[in-house]
Amino acid sequence: MRTRTGQAGAAVVTALMAMSMAACAGDDAADTDGGFTVGLLLPSGAIPRWEHSDKPLIEKRIKELCPRCTLRYANAENDATRQRDQVTSMITKGAKVLILDAADTRAIRSSIQEADRAGVPVVAYDRLAEGPISGYVSFNGAQVGRLQGAALLKAMGPDARGGTVVMMNGDPASPNAAWYRDGALSVLKGKVKIGREYETQGWSTDNAHANMDAAIAALGPRRIDGVLAANDAIAAGAVSALKKAGVSELPPVTGQDADLDAVRRIVAGEQTMTVYKPFQAEASAAARMAVALGRGQTLDDIATTTTDSPTTEDIPTVLLAPTPVTIGTIEPTLVDHGVYTVDQICTPALRAACDRAGLTS
After folding, report:
1. Dihedral (C-alpha) 76, 80, 81, 87: value to the nearest 10 degrees?
2. Judging by beta carbons within 10 Å of its beta carbon (0-12, 13-18, 19+), is residue 5 exposed, middle or buried?
3. Interval 128-177: pLDDT, tens
4. Which residues make Cβ contacts (< 8 Å) with residue 213, sequence separation at least 6?
5. HEC states along the chain?
6. What gap in Å lies between CA 210 and CA 195, rounded to an integer?
7. pLDDT tier, 223 (very low <50, low <70, confident <90, very high otherwise)
8. Contact 181, 200 (CB under 8 A)
């Protein structure tokens, strides 16, 4: 995957998106050509964000942009064959445009070609699938990895000098997993020793737990100085395995997605950080692309850059900037922006820890 802009350009996309959305709101909101069906295909239920954040946000934004449009939804549950069938079903049932987060970005290529032959444009959401994609919305994955790596080194302190890190990468079927890994390694390389490295099939907490068990068996429970976990589901598995092994003073553990359970682990001192990706901006950009394509319009006023996939060049793209979250930034990053309330984060068991962190209702 290769984008045509530098990192500085990606960092300002959020601001550009906000201005663009404000400027175009009047035009976008006008439902001038009747409604149509938008198909939304998400990859799994294993990661909470898909069902809890992305789906409702996309649905809401599409309704704002096109009141007569309808949303047809399917979840692949990490099954690439099921998702291919779902794409075919969406096309057969008359979807005019698809928003697709691929369960397997290579396996779905033939289905995207099928959609293209049927005249149904596809917006790649969060992960860049292969095939004739019409638009792409995601976050800067290299920056996600760099934020994780930098936070891990800072949390490790003196142990970072030659310390041992276990890398718990994402699902190899997702191109984002390699993107995150490369970003993290650009920060960690030459500073720490990668003691063990694993790919986590399906981004599964259970698989992450099993991989962490293997790392503990190989390295010893107290010879792990840090864990680079690609997302919060993987972090949950790593933390549970370390606790099961009797590690009372947990090493720094990274994450991504700002899942509620992860935020609670940060408050409890079990996870060092997560990466917040403002899903509302991502969902809004995807909805705007889908509605524009469904109306036969170009993406010139929406896309801020282009991306090349292994099969397609110059895909109109929106790349958004991620934000790190630590114990000291939960309130300004998540609470103040309405992602979670203090009451949602601070369960009775965490009340004392929340008070120490300054999280008060």
Report:
1. 60
2. middle
3. 999 999 999 999 999 999 999 999 999 999 989 989 999 999 999 888 99
4. 241, 244, 245
5. CEECCCHHHHHCHHHHHHHHHHHHHHHHHCCCCCCCEEEEEECCCCCHHHHHHHHHHHHHHHHHHCCCCEEEEEECCCCHHHHHHHHHHHHHCCCCEEEECCCCCCCCHHHHHHHHHCCCCEEEECCCCCCCCCEEEEECHHHHHHHHHHHHHHHHHHHHCCCEEEEEECCCCCHHHHHHHHHHHHHHCCCCEEEEEEECHHHCHHHHHHHHHHHHHHHCCCCCCEEEECCHHHHHHHHHHHHHCCCCCCCCECCCCCCHHHHHHHHHCCCCCEEECCHHHHHHHHHHHHHHHHCCCCCCCCCCEEEECCCCCCEEEEEECCEEECCCCHHHHHHCCCCCCHHHHCCHHHHHHHHHHCCCC
6. 16
7. very high
8. no
Residue 42 to residue 126: CA distance in whole angstroms: 10
Q: Which of 114, 148, 109, 115 minimizes the C-alpha distance to 127?
A: 109
Residues 289-312: pLDDT tens digits? Answer: 999 999 999 999 999 999 999 999
User: How far, CA to CA in Å, does 114 sit from each of 11, 43, 84, 106?
Assistant: 35, 19, 10, 14
Indicate whether 327 pLDDT > 90: yes
Report pLDDT for 45. Answer: 82
Two structure tokens written together for 355: 């008070």
Contact yes or no for 356/342 (Cβ under 8 A): no
Determine the pLDDT at residue 1. Answer: 56
Q: Which amino acid type is present at position 100?
A: L
pLDDT surpasses 50 at 12: no
Residue 240: predicted pLDDT = 98
Q: How far apart are CA 240 and CA 247, in angstroms?
A: 10
Closest by CA to 40, choosing from 28, 53, 29, 30, is 53
pLDDT in tens, 82-136: 999 999 999 999 999 999 999 999 999 999 999 999 999 999 999 999 999 999 9
Tell me what pLDDT residue 27 has: 42
Q: What is the pLDDT of residue 48?
A: 82
Which residues pair with residue 165 across a beta bridge?
Answer: 194, 226
